[in-house]
């Protein structure tokens, strides 16, 4: 019996969202029937332009915004009928830096733990501060910290009550590249400890670096949810650049079907193709180049980035 219950808990989604809608008093439809399941222990990146509905979605799951329609379960707990239990499982790092500027780092993290009815646990708080490289700053007032350190304090506050699910809304906004990469390591360590992470970001490389799965939102709708690697394989494009042995004046009519681009100096041919049809297309191209008497000295390939895929999805090109 105990094994069965444990198996059910492990297979249960961390978050289950069904038919979620939000219409504000102004008439704005911020969310239009969102269906989404977040798996336990994954890093899920939620992408979308400003106004796509990402922050509204997070606000509803975290109990800060009321839904118009739909249902949200956090580890099986309904966020409306079982609000206290559901909310205790969730930590939120908001986009805005909201911190009690005159408090010390130690006091503000301790206070956040107490807000959720957790007993004082100095050892746990110390562990969180050390993991976030804040231990040496524990007695400093938050007003004296840099923007990057304040961002770390926000994460520490969100982790103070030992949540199993953590929302990071633009966690590295306004921090330098070095600190951003440092915080990526923190996110990975949190996931390794069993925390499920939902990340919103404007930095596409952040999603590309961290995420297991990616959801793309646009105008209140969930356009796509896909494993990151599958997404890049399915929707990505590759570019094959051929360095020609001899200068070419124009692309021969026999090769028109490949939509090749000839460089201005006539020394390079560029072939852009879908990754799914890659091998067949390249083999055919090389055979036709040979038949046309066009020789090349070298070739190189590059794959489209997640940013290019994302832009295409939002524009409705894919």
TrEMBL record:
SUPFAM superfamilies in alphabetical order: P-loop containing nucleoside triphosphate hydrolases
GO MF terms, alphabetically ordered: ATP binding; ATP hydrolysis activity
Major location (coarse): membrane
Keyword terms, alphabetized: Antibiotic resistance, ATP-binding, Nucleotide-binding, Transport
CDD domains assigned to the protein according to its UniProt record, in alphabetical order: ABC_subfamily_A (cd03263)
Cellular compartments annotated: Cell membrane
ABC transporter domain mapped to chain residues: 15-244
GO biological process: response to antibiotic
Protein name: ABC transporter ATP-binding protein
Species assigned in the record: Rubrobacter xylanophilus
């Amino acid at each position: 019996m105990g094994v069965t219950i444990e198996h059910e808990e492990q297979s249960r989604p961390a978050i289950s969202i069904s038919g979620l809608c939000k219409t504000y008093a102004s008439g704005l439809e911020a969310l239009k029937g969102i269906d989404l399941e977040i798996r336990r222990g994954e890093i899920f990146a939620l992408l979308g332009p400003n106004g796509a509905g990402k922050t509204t979605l997070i606000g509803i799951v975290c109990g800060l915004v009321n839904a118009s329609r739909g249902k949200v379960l956090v580890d099986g707990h309904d966020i409306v009928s079982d609000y206290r239990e559901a909310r205790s499982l969730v930590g939120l790092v908001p986009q805005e830096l909201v911190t009690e500027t005159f408090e010390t780092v130690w006091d503000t993290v301790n206070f956040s733990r107490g807000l959720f009815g957790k007993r004082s646990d100095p050892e746990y708080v110390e562990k969180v501060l050390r993991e976030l490289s804040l231990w040496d700053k524990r007695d400093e007032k938050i007003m004296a910290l840099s923007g990057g350190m304040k961002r770390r304090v926000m994460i520490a506050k969100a982790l103070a009550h030992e949540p199993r699910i953590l929302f990071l809304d633009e966690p590295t906004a306004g921090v330098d590249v070095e600190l951003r990469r440092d915080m990526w390591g923190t996110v990975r360590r949190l996931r390794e400890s069993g925390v499920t992470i939902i990340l919103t970001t404007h930095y596409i490389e952040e999603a590309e670096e961290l995420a297991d799965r990616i959801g793309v939102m646009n105008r209140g709708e969930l356009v796509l949810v896909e494993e990151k690697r599958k997404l890049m394989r399915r929707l990505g494009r590759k570019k094959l650049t051929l360095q020609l042995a001899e200068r070419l004046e124009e692309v021969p009519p026999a090769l028109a079907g490949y939509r090749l681009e000839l460089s201005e100096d006539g020394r390079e041919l560029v072939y852009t193709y879908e990754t799914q049809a890659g091998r067949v297309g390249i083999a055919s191209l090389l055979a036709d180049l040979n038949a046309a008497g066009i020789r090349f000295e070298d070739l190189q390939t590059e794959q489209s980035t997640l940013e290019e895929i994302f832009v295409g999805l939002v524009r409705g090109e894919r």
